[in-house]
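Possible race condition, two jobs.
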Amino acid sequence: MSALVAFTLAGAVTWGLRASFVLAGQRVNIPVRAERALADSRPAILASLVGAALTTPSGAILWFSTPPTWLVAAVVAAAVAHRTRSVPATSVAGMGTLWMLTLVSG
């Protein structure tokens, strides 16, 4: 199987799973406990992605191998997350900072 076919199939399966939750969510009543648990999953996923990008498997922070723009963007995103408690605001602040610093630094 070629890489293009594999990526296309993986994307289709991922999209299908996400779409099924959106479509079923309108018809299925989710228990209150499950809704509370799912509300905490978005920040946890975001933290795990950022943490994995900035650390080694042993847990050491990649101060010297991580581009400085990533570290600055991570600090800005962490500050916004702490202040606003909003995943969209955190994402916009972090990615916006990263993109602006990347444009400025070339």
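Job #2 (started ~2 s after job #1):
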Amino acid sequence: MRIQIGVMAENDTNSSTTPHPLNGSLWVGDLGPEVSEQQLYEVFAQIGQVQSVRVCRDALTRRSLGYAYVNYLATADGETRPSEEASSLATS
């Protein structure tokens, strides 16, 4: 599994659309169509406590769009580890 990772910290406590203001989200891209939520969960749970994983899919065909979001319970879990660590876990 080859992936690209970007950190999206959700620290805006004034936003009514942010249900968990202290959690952290990772954008995971360049995913193959066969990558599932379970596979991503298994990889990213090794880094921190995962709240949820969502592979984004086409609304009509339900095919993967090639990216996903991994949400951690704590922002630090998604930010303190370098992207290279998650990438190396994904390729092992």
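Residues 9-20 have pLDDT under 50 and may be disordered.
Logs attached separately.
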